Amino acid sequence: MAASRVNNGNRHNLRLGAFLGVFAIIATGEVFAPRRRLTTSKSRRWLANLAIVALNPLSVVLVYPILPVGLALLASELGWGLLNQWALPYGLEVLIGMAALDLVVYTQHVLHHAIPVLRLVVVTPDMHRVHHSVIIRETNSNYGFNLPWWDRLLGTYKAHPAKGHTDMVIGLSQFRDPQRLILPRLLILPFVGDPGRGPINRH
Question: Taking CA 147 as the corner, what is the angle to CA 16 and CA 49, rounded to the nearest 5 degrees?
């Protein structure tokens, strides 16, 4: 039990270190070599988004028994799942598991836009930026979380925004007021107002 706690602590520290390291690199790039002209307060946007990131672990703790980690442990103990039925090399299992997880996240992202009630989670650069275009057809594309394959294979990939990455307008038309992007408004965003509807379509 003690060893398990140590391993869990090391894993959490590793994840936190990786997050902070990647954030520091991306934030430095955004400050010194921004891809686009700043349209909202950087400090306000970072404060709101980082606060949501900090609140995520709390929500995971509250729903842990019924969500992914608990279910994964249960599946491992009971031998559920395809990877528990096959004797595969560990490295291959990791690759298959990562690809499958990425497909699940892709599907989740599509469903969050297609079914508004599921949109309780608000998620590199050029490809995903198209997904945040104000043009609905571009919004309904590039859902991928990590790998670009699923968008390409499933017909939701769009290489470039119509107006180019510099001139494209980012953000849903109904949420362009900066006052609606402060932390309290962001936290209640999935439950109020008109989120719009995202059809599941192919390009």
Answer: 40
Q: In whole angstroms, give the CA distance from residue 151 to residue 168.
A: 21
**CA–CA dist 8, 201 (Å, integer):** 41
Return per-residue pLDDT of the chain as tens, 203 residues: 444 454 555 767 787 788 888 888 988 988 888 877 777 778 888 888 888 888 877 776 676 656 667 777 788 788 888 888 888 898 898 899 888 888 888 887 787 677 766 555 543 677 888 988 989 889 889 888 777 888 888 888 888 899 988 888 888 777 777 777 778 887 777 777 665 566 555 55
Q: CA 81, CA 95: separation in Å to the nearest integer?
A: 15
Residues 2 and 7: their CA atoms lie apart, in Å, by 9
Q: What is the pTM of this model?
A: 0.49
Query: Cα–Cα distance between 196 and 76 in angstroms, integer?
Result: 39
* Cβ neighbour number for residue 148 with a 10 Å cutoff: 15
φ, ψ of residue 170 in degrees (nearest 5) = -105, 140
* 169: CB partners within 8 A, 6+ apart: 133, 134, 135, 163
Tokens in use for 127?
């490809």
Residue with structure tokens 């955004």? 30
CA-closest candidate to residue 30, choices 47, 53, 46: 46
